[in-house]
Amino acid sequence: MTKAWQIYYNAVLGAIGGLLGWLIIGQIPTGDWDVHLANAVSGLVIGLFIGGSIGAVEGLFVKRSVGRTLLGVLGGAFAGALSGALGLLLGGLAFVLLGELLGDASLSLGSLNINLGLLLARMLGWMALGLFLGLGQGILSLRIKRASFSLLGGTIAGLVGGAVYEVLTQLFIQQSGEIQVFLSAVALVLIGVALGGIIAATVELAKDARTIVLTGRRANTEVSIIGKATLGSSDACDIYIPDEGVEKQHGILEKRGDSFVLINNGHSQPISAGGKVIPPGGSQRLDDGMIITVGAVQLKFRVK
User: Quick one: 243 exposed, middle or buried, by C-beta within 10 A (0-12, 13-18, 19+)?
Assistant: First the structure.
């Protein structure tokens, strides 16, 4: 599976998560609650479903592993719930403060006058949700660089989603309650799409290299590498190769200085790079375009 498809599936599952979050929130009677408690609970539910949905992508579509899918859902949901509750709570505070500071200031878009205070407040509110949700997803990877780019992607997604949400809300503010409910669903789906797609696309900017599986059961699968990646037949490996002759954790691709090396983890099964066999415990520098052979499977190593 190419990276473009992986970004697409992140966006689709993010949208599904946003829709599920909207459906569940609609069943919780928060109308009489304290506004900050209602924001925290809404953020928790939104983050739970969007985070869990995005967390399923790697296991469901990339590794096609039931166990890895379940772990991804649980990890993503947990990180999403915590970050969503905190993000929308802080975002709600920003919404109230900015709404008071900017008052009735407006922005004209043709025949439509947008309340600038509400627009900026809504954007900051959803930005906070996206920021923490992106950070939560990134932390799961245990890679500082990936976490920082996930944070950036989540922030951008929150800003975009919040702007669309507020513009749609003010555009149809005079419409019926049914229209408002529909818009809430559309807005959360858009935010789910933005969070899933933009976080995944932004993380792609952080990659140092990538591998493309050329043969075997996972031919045409593309895996991005940020700093370091494990390679083996265990679905816990970054580069998952469930083929005969591949050990559970057969090797490691690691960035050292400005270049990458392939390390044989000490297994007697063959692993080579550029036609040169790497002895157990040994390593080999990787050049752009070099072919890696592990068991009977071939991969191409590409820088960026």
Answer: middle
Neighbour tally for 271: CB within 10 Å: 25
Task: List pLDDT tens digits, range 50-100.
Answer: 989 998 998 998 888 898 899 889 988 988 888 888 878 877 787 777 767
Three-state SS at 247: coil
Q: In degrees rounded to 5, what are phi and psi of residue 214?
A: -95, -35
Please give the model's pTM, rounded to 2 decimal places: 0.81
* Beta-sheet pairing, 297-303 with 209-213: antiparallel
pLDDT in tens, 107-151: 666 666 666 766 776 677 777 777 777 776 666 665 666 677 777
Quote the DSSP letter at residue 143.
Answer: -
CATH number of 209-303, picked from 1.25.40.10, 2.60.200.20, 3.40.1000.10, 3.10.450.60:
2.60.200.20
> Distance between CA atoms of 296 and 246, rounded to whole angstroms?
8
3-class state of residue 115 by DSSP:
strand
In the block, tokens 């772990």 appear at 71
Residue type, 114: I
Distance CA 112, CA 127 (A): 24
- Is there a contact between 50 and 219 (Cβ–Cβ < 8 Å)? no
Dist. CA 224–CA 138, nearest whole Å: 14
Domain limits of the chain?
Answer: 3-205, 209-303
- The secondary structure element, H or E, covering residue 112 is strand 112-115
Tell me the two tokens of residue 160: 């975009």
